[in-house]
Each structure stands twice: as C-alpha cells, then as structure tokens.
Design goal:
Elements: H1 3-33, H2 53-73, H3 80-109, H4 119-150
Helix pairs in contact: 1-2, 1-4, 2-3, 3-4
C-alpha cells in the first residue's frame, strides 16, 4: 500500500468516526436527554456529566487537516473531485454546526434542573433534532462520496 492510499484511508476513518458518533448520539443520547427536559438533562450536569466536547473539539481539526493533506497529495489525480466535494460539504456542515447546532445544544443542555417538563425546551430540541437529521443525512452522502474516491486512481 502506498502512502497516498494510507493517508486517504485515515481521512475516511476520521470522517467515519464523526458519522459514528453522530449516529450514536441520535440513537442513544438525545432520546434520553430530551425525554422530559429539563429533568432529563441531568446527564449533562454535575460531577460525572457526559462531556462530548473533547471528542468533537479533537476530531474536527484532525479531519480538516486530513482533508487538506489529501487534497494536496491527490491534486492531480482522479480522487481530487471526490475529496473536494466531501471537503466543501464538510466545511459547510462545520459552519452550520458552529453557527447553530453547537450553541443551541449547549444552551439547551445547560438548562437548570426543574421537576416539570418545559415545553419550550421540548419544541426547541424537536427543531434541533429534525435539522440535525438532515445534517447527518448530508454527511452520510459526503462519506459515500469520499469512499468512492478511494476506489479511484491516485496517480497523475
């Protein structure tokens, strides 16, 4: 295996880790967190809270770095367009996440404990979750594009 293939595989792995974490959160975390907010949000509060920030703050710069390295390494190959499409889509997702998804979910999960269900939080999360499903579907399409690029010739 040549080094270009190896670096491309690392990019695919990194992008897949993002998708895997996103799917996990949608299936295992968010349904429980927003079952009866703000009471159900205690999983994000206290000494032993769930803190996904370290993962997300680490994986995104690594993935962006791998996109850039792969784009440079494959600039004159058939893979370039696949990398470019996935990278531009990834950057668009990151911008939307930075502008809306991350601030909104952080704000929602920091809501102070109450014993009653807050319908405003339920409504805001419902919108967040719906939009997040579209974001995830778009990311899956980008991942498929990226994986298809791996099947293309990496020579000039």
């Amino acid at each position: 295996m040549n080094y270009k293939n190896f670096i491309y595989i690392l990019l695919c792995l990194s992008f897949s880790m993002i998708l895997g974490a996103s799917v996990y959160e949608h299936l295992a975390v968010w349904p429980n967190a927003f079952a009866a907010p703000p009471k159900s949000l205690t999983m994000f509060q206290g000494d032993f809270k769930l803190s996904p920030e370290l993962f997300w703050k680490s994986i995104h710069p690594i993935t962006l770095f791998l996109f850039i390295v792969n784009l440079i390494l494959n600039w004159k190959s058939e893979r370039k367009k696949y990398i470019l499409v996935a990278m531009i889509g990834y950057i668009l997702i990151a911008i939307v996440a930075f502008a809306y998804f991350s601030p909104e979910i952080i704000l929602l999960t920091k809501t102070k404990y109450q014993d009653t269900v807050n319908q405003e939080i339920v409504s805001r999360f419902s919108l967040w979750e719906t939009l997040s499903f579209f974001e995830l579907a778009f990311a899956i399409i980008l991942a498929i594009t990226l994986f298809v690029g791996l099947t293309k010739n990496n020579n000039k």
